[in-house]
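Assemble and predict.
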Amino acid sequence: MSDIADRVKKIVVEHLGVEEDKVTENASFIDDLGADSLDTVELVMAFEEEFGIEIPDDAAETIQTFGDAVKFISQAS
Amino acid sequence: MFDLSGKCALVTGASGGIGGAIAKALHGAGATVGLSGTRVDPLEALAAELGDRAFVLPCDLSDPEAVNALPKQAIDAMGSLDILVNNAGITRDQIFMRMSDDEWQSVLDVNLTSAMRLCRGVMRPMMKSRWGRIINISSIVGATGNPGQANYAAAKAGLIGMTKSIAYEVASRGITANAVAPGFIATAMTDKLTDDQKAKINAQIPAARMGTPEEIAAAVLYLASPEAGYVTGATLHVNGGMAML
C-alpha cells in the first residue's frame, strides 16, 4: 500500500475510532465507518493539514470513501 | 468570576456603546480582543484605553470580501479565535409601505448576512480546537416586532434562527452558539431622545429605566465563559422585563 494510503488510513482510524481492517478501498465514511457530516468535514481538514493541500468544498463533496480520498490526494499532492 | 485568560475574542461594532462595553468586559476577564468596526478613531481610542491584548481590525461589514477576510486577520493578529461576538448593526427605519429594496437589503446585509459570513469563517478554527463561543446580538424587536423596523426586526429574528441552527450542528464539538436580545439600552443613539420620549419608553419597562451597555456585556461575558458550556441555542433576553419571553 502506498505511503499516502497509509497516512490517510491512520487519520481515518484515529478520527473515527474504527478498526484498521474496516478501512477498505470502498468503505464509505458515512455508511460504513459511522461518520456524520461534520466528521467528513473534519477528515477533509485533517487531510489538508497532513498533506499540505487545499481541498475545495466542491471536491470535498466527492470524497465519500477511503478510496476516493486516497485517489484525490494522490492527484493533488 | 469568569476567566477568559488565553482566549481570543472578535467583537464587531466595537466602536459603538454596546460593542465597546462587550469588548471591555471580555478584556477585563482576561481575553485578548479584536476590535472591529468601520470608524477607526473610536476603535483606536478603545484599544489605547484597554492597553495590552487589544487589536484594531477595521472592517466594512457591507463588503463581502472584507468580511470573509476578517476571521483570518483576527487570527493573524491575536493567534487564535475562540469567541465571536456579532454585535454590529445598522438601522434604516421606514414605515413598511414605503420601505425600499435598498433600505431592506442594506440592513439585512450588515445585520444578518455579515454575521453569517463571520460565523462561517470561525467554524474551522473552532472545530479544530474543539472549543468555541458564538454570540450573536439580536434585539427585543426580533421577537416582538416594531413599527418602522420591518427590516431590522427581520434581520434580528433571522439571527436567532441562524444561531439555533448553528448550535445544533456544532454542539458536539464544544462550540456553543447563543443570542443576546437587548431591550432599550442607553447609548449615544437613545441620548438623542427627548425627556418626553424617554418617559414614554420607561413607562413600558417594568424596571422603569433603560438598560446599560454594561448589562448587555455581562450577559455576553457569561455566554462566552467556560461555565456556560452547556448553554447553547439560547436567546438571553436582557430587557428589564419589557418582554418576558
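The mean pLDDT of chain B is 96.
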